[in-house]
Amino acid sequence: MKVFEIHGNTLSLTLFIEVTNSKDLKESMQAGKLDPEVSFLNASLIPDVFPVPVAACKALSPVHSEFVYNYLSP
């Protein structure tokens, strides 16, 4: 397991193998029933751990910086 702190949030990455209830997990995730909130990624599409926290950092960026970025973007 890898753990990262991003903007005051904790990102935990765990690799599970031989998962047999993926359909149930997907339905629970989409319904917002899982606590804590989770996301599922296809590990075969991720070349290294590094891009995951980078993507999370971009997704969790503060709203104010998004306003500035969008205002200044052409």
UniProtKB/TrEMBL annotation:
CC terms in the record's Gene Ontology section: cytosol; EKC/KEOPS complex; nucleus
Membrane spanning stretches: none
Keyword tRNA processing: yes
Pfam families: CGI-121
Subcellular compartments: Nucleus
One biological process term in Gene Ontology: tRNA threonylcarbamoyladenosine modification
Keyword tRNA processing: yes
InterPro entries per UniProt: CGI121/TPRKB, CGI121/TPRKB_sf
Keywords linked to the UniProt accession: Nucleus, tRNA processing
Sequence similarity: Belongs to the CGI121/TPRKB family.
Protein name: EKC/KEOPS complex subunit Tprkb
Organism: Gossypium australe
